[in-house]
Amino acid sequence: MSDVKTYKMMIGGEWVDASGGDTFESMNPFTGKTWALIPKGGKEDADRAVAAARKAFETGDWPKMTATQRGHLLRKLGDLIAEKAEALAATEVRDNGKLIAEMGMQLKYVPQWYYYFGGLADKIEGAVTPIDKAEHFHYTRHEPLGVVCAITPWNSPLLLAAWKLAPALAAGNTVVLKPSEFTSASSLEYAALFEEAGFPPGVVNVVTGYGHEIGAALTEHPGVDKITFTGGPETGKRVYATGAAQLKRVSLELGGKSPNIVFDDCDMENAVKGAISGIFAATGQTCIAGSRLLVQQSIHDEFVDKLVAFAKTAKMGDPMSMDTQVGPVTTVPQYEKILSYLDIAKDEGAEVRMGGGKAVRPECGDGYFVEPTVFTGVNNRMRIAQEEVFGPVLSVIPFKDEEEALHIGNDVVYGLAAGVWTQSMRRAFTMSEKLRAGSVWVNTYRAVSYMAPFGGFKQSGVGRENGQDAIREYMQTKSVWMSYATETPNPFVMR
Description:
The protein is an alpha/beta fold. The protein has two domains: 5-254 and 460-479, 3-Layer(aba) Sandwich (Aldehyde Dehydrogenase, Chain A, domain 1), CATH 3.40.605.10; 259-442, Aldehyde Dehydrogenase, Chain A, domain 2. The protein has 14 helices and 23 strands. Strands 15-16-17-14-13-19-20 form a seven-stranded mixed beta sheet, with helices on both faces. Helix 2 (67-96) packs antiparallel against helix 6. The N and C termini lie far apart (73 Å).
């Protein structure tokens, strides 16, 4: 294992091993082989990280910095990420198996979050209130919460870390970042850039380990003021309950079962591409996947034929190749989950139009590959239409008219995203209004921006990331009263 890289955690500005000295293996999903050893942290490491973050928040250089100075650091960090984008992307591909084409684009885009929130840091203004009390002056100020625990998933580690860290740091908080145990390496490399940018020790700490061990220790820690979590719904519910027990602030970005709705007046060529992008890009391992394709009955058969023909051209194989279009599933448990859902769908009576099993193409090697799969004959009561698969599995559901499309589209516990394909302006606005989802894309799909709020309705989450409002998720408002009266009135009566 001489070619296996060993990593350390970043706590309080120091590179350290796990307190117990243990490590765990990180697997390359394409080769199925170990490529890195990651520190296996536990409660003691969580305690060390929170203590370091608390110290940095209350003492030293960080709390003395002006918002403008914090902004300068964030923009410097953005420059460093831009310089290291290719190397960071390559690390992520080794860890999660997503395409270098996508991860490279993500890492080149990530600096924008630090530029945007770096610029926003000194634009958060309080207000002077024309208060209704004589001889009093009143104003508000917005202050950081304190120590933020940020927990990120394995599908886009550094992009989703930026969604959390950029606004949290711009607001003046300190952070303990806990990446997924399946994809920790890039976050540990990321930590070095904060140090290089000049962030004081302890402002950003990165700890690694299993969710039920160090993750739970962090969310339960009384020294943590806010939890921001992206991941599965069941874990999210536990995080929410843990936060509620201590009245912590909690933001959650969870799962989805998003409808991608195609009307008979669509531009069919673009809609086919949009359906492909919604489910087979990133091997379907994205919370916003358009995994339910709703197609109007009048064009259903023609559209499905075109979709299947296009999807069959997808090139599978090495995610480090720019020619590859569908890569491996990131983890063995997820691989097994996807395969189990293929069996569930078949047992429910869904018809396999393409795929439906393991990929055994020579170009897939020993990796965890699933054939891009399209099911027809699906109704919205089937498990394949209600439960998040998180893989390259598409369920096609026919509908008659707008009313039925809305009913089917909204008839799930999730509400993260939705797509609409139509050339009718009236329908575009009507559907966007009535779909119960945090993001609605019309004649496009899977677009995100540092400027655009992102988050879910219903069981898809709580709170919003990105956009100007995101920084408020990491701040609290203080109300300040000043009296300039020469005499204090009756002290036994509220003024």
